TrEMBL record:
UniProt EC number: 3.5.1.88
Keyword set, alphabetical order: Hydrolase, Iron, Metal-binding, Protein biosynthesis
Signal peptide start-end: none
Coiled-coil region list: none
Cofactor(s) of this protein: Fe(2+)
InterPro entries: Peptide_deformylase (IPR023635), Peptide_deformylase_sf (IPR036821)
Residues reported in the UniProt entry to bind Fe cation: 88, 130, 134
Cofactor note: Binds 1 Fe(2+) ion.
Gene coding for it: def
Protein name per UniProt: Peptide deformylase
Length: 160
């Protein structure tokens, strides 16, 4: 179990779609431990496996004191709209207003291979969409308007 270093843009691992977890191995169990430990820090809402350099479909979350994880998440439903500040551990120091669905429902499995569903509105809904984006090789900056995205990329080049 370890708190892992977080990869930041432009690390190519953040741009690589993650692989489905086919088998729950000891390495996958260790990954989940590390994800849970690394997300357990004030101000961390979610953490995907590729943010700690592992190319597998898994993320952990830490919202309103509730910490958990999911493997092989798939977004099943989104509805409504929210437009609010979003940040990312892989894009340190930047916050931008980002448009998301208000509600999201995600289905995946736990370490016993049992199906789990995570769903929620507001911040929890935003986190589910944000982490699933990571697993597809996207960061939230991809969702910004062109000008803002250019400005953010310039900032990252100059500050990291």
């Amino acid at each position: 179990m370890a708190i892992r270093e977080i990869r930041v843009v432009p690390d190519p691992v953040l741009r690589t779609p993650c692989d489905e977890i086919k088998e729950i191995t000891p390495a996958v169990r260790r990954l989940v431990d590390d994800l849970l430990q690394t997300v357990d820090d004030p101000g961390r809402a979610g953490l995907s496996a590729n943010q700690i350099g592992v190319n597998l479909r898994a993320f952990s979350y830490n919202i309103n004191g509730k910490i958990g994880y999911i493997l092989n998440p798939v977004i099943e439903e989104k509805s409504g709209e929210q437009y609010g500040d979003e940040g990312c551990l892989s894009v340190p120091g930047l916050w931008y207003k980002t448009r998301r669905a208000d509600y999201a429902r995600v289905r995946g499995i736990d370490l016993d291979g049992k199906e789990i569903v995570l769903e929620g509105h507001g911040l929890f809904g935003r986190m589910l969409q944000h982490e699933c984006d990571h697993l597809d090789g996207h960061v939230y900056l991809d969702r910004l308007e062109k000008e803002e995205r250019r400005e953010a990329m310039r900032y990252m080049r100059n500050h990291h």
